[in-house]
Amino acid sequence: MKILALHILPPFAIGRLGSAPEPMDNYTIKENPEHPLDFRTIKGAETLIVDEASGEISESRIPRTLSFKQGGRIRPVAPFLEVFVQTDADPSKPLTPLTLDLLAQNGLGEEDVSWHVSVANRKVVRRTTDVNDLVEADTGWFSGHDPRRLEGHCKNFIAKDRFIDFGQVRYIKPNEAFPQIRLRFTPAQGLIYGPDVGEQADSNDPKLYRVPVERQIYDKSKGSWCYFNADNWGESLPRKGKPPTPIYNETMPPSLFAIEPPAPPWLNNDVAISRGYLDDACDGFVEVRLALKRGKCPQACARICAGPPVVVPDSLFVRNLADDLEQVIEGPQVPDNEPYEVTRAKAEDILRRAYETVRYLNIAVMNGNSVEGRPALSFDTMPAGEATATDRMERPVMVPETVDTLAILALHEQVFAALRSGAIPWFLRLLRLPEEAADFTDEGRRKMPALMCGADSNYLALTRRQIDTIRAASDDLPFPPDLKWGEAGGSPADRAPKLTPRNRSALVSYAAAGNPVSSRPINAIANCCPGLEVDFRAVWRRILEGLVLREYDNLVIDVDPRQDHPGKLKLKGHRLLRINGVKVMARAKGPDPSDRFGSVVLATKDNPDAVQPLEWSNVLAPILHQYAGGLVTCDFTAKESWDDQPWWDDKNPSLYVTFKFRVRPFFDGETAVISRKLAEVGELTQGLCSPWQNDYRECSCYYWAAARPDYVNVEPSPNGMSQGDNWLQRHHTGQYIPDDYVDSRMILYDDLFREWEKWLRIVIRGRDVPDTPEDTH
């Protein structure tokens, strides 16, 4: 068979940080068909054992027991990336694994395969805008089987030989038993790096974490990351008498980095002075090429990233990266010819994930109820955030006396049962549409999913395709009795799809041999604010060819000078309003105090136009599906964005300017790899916390409950209400402790900086797994 093209599968693989010496065994999670809302069962799967000396796979085994920690240390998830080839010009023909035999048929050997890996951490340069703060590792092309360490170098480090260890990659040596060509990515340990403090201690406070001397690598005399200071409003703070200036590249939420105490910044007049910490999270590309004797050498690439461990391995979040990628690939609507049983199974899966997300939320706290005498506004919840953004008093979303985690779980059980009985059309009215994210009326806030934050910092909405899946499954038809449930994420019709070059859904969901489910997009939280493994907002910044947008508010921050119209060059600082007439922003509205059934625009002094940018993934899904590669008509504010103007008035042409832009394709060519033109190396993680451990304290709102739980060990109390532990309280006693940034009963920032593996407890079936070397399930 002649080799025409290469593919690396999966096209996006997630490594999970951890310092245990042995990578995590392969496992999958399965539903119980007889009790569909019970906890998923974790099952061991084929695990490939790599011989450290030779780089070969010495054996495969299915583990009888699974341990997520070893000796109190998290086991890293180290995914394999497999090479497939296209041997037929017809793209509908299946891909073939690249093996020693297929290489030999083409007169080649394993030495004719070469790899190139580049990863980066852009968290610092994203904030300081100093290009010398980029931390990047590049292996160059290699063909040997020895491990290649990913050394992250930076011009602002104290010496050229100092680096951040991003982990390693290894070209696995093929053999007779395991002949396929593959590479393994082993992520780093989850360490924190910091500035060179010399003999001077950062602080005399013994409670504060001090980065070990060997990891003090940042030169304060070269860069500005140590003591970097930015407020929460996208301006640099005045320095040496200079007025504040706009920071086009600030992240949102802002100040997501380790700061000088007290923390977080909103408890310190929005002052955020950076400690200068860096981490070993990263993202980038794996490339492979084949040295054919004749003709052009085929080449392929895939994306990798390193992120936090999955601490609730038997649960999935209600909206994950796989949902967003499916919407990009398949469009916002379910096709009429999709088999009914497939649609119904997918709808069930969405509701099931909603159930297991709620399972780990303390609904009373998230609702804005007072706890232990503390006022609700003292908690970082959606009602509190909404009150701050709109300059209004905080209002609970639901009647405080009626909300409890067990009660809301019972409601979800009723909805699930209604779907199975075919009597659920009424449920659609309860789902929040993407354009309703800024509807702060009582009716709007109570829509589902409730109490959680989306990528636009407003109330979370499902993807349009998820919503349409539930609509399509809501016909009054009986549930097929013979439908069996399989592995997480789909029905039998979705399993083992045909691996062809154009079947992007199959490519994205491909499960490589030896890879745990936690390495796949189905286990990634990417489109909540801002994300956990990756920030999915980053891929939309360059979706309009020639422009770079700020991902959270549609501000034009850069324009390609090669634009064909001189007016386009002046768009920097203006805000995108509409694409083909579709608004990319909404106006915040809330209840009218004088009319309980009415609503008013929630203008504030800082936001006189009540501007609420909408989440990119859902706004652009219909545009991308219809116009990828084509031209669209875009309206921008006529003036720079910080000038007062009634931006919502689309009837007055003097208020906006209009230009046509081309929509970039989302994927590279005929692959399922997110285009490099949309997000370069390191850009998928650049908006996340630095260090990543900061995330577990910075967002005490528990917006990502399935990946970073709030409520664990939950059980009914004598009064019928729920009782349990706050996942981040030091000692789990069954008595929930409300979060507080200075409460010594809680795990605090510096505890995580110092011993994150000790404090991040693994939770299975809703309960803590004992933290001992013998942890098994």
Provide an overview of this structure.
- The protein is α+β, with helices and mostly antiparallel strands and about 775 residues long.
- It has 13 helices and 34 strands.
- Helices cover about 15% and strands about 20% of the residues.
- Strands 1, 9, 10, 13, 14 and 15 form a six-stranded antiparallel beta sheet that branches. The protein has a five-stranded mixed beta sheet with strand order 2-20-19-11-12.
- It folds into three domains: about 5-190 and about 280-310, no CATH class; about 320-490 and about 525-530 and about 690-725, no CATH class; about 535-660, no CATH class.
- Residues about 230-245, about 475-495 and about 775 have low confidence and may be disordered.
- The two termini are about 45 Å apart.
- The longest helix has 19 residues, at about 340-360.
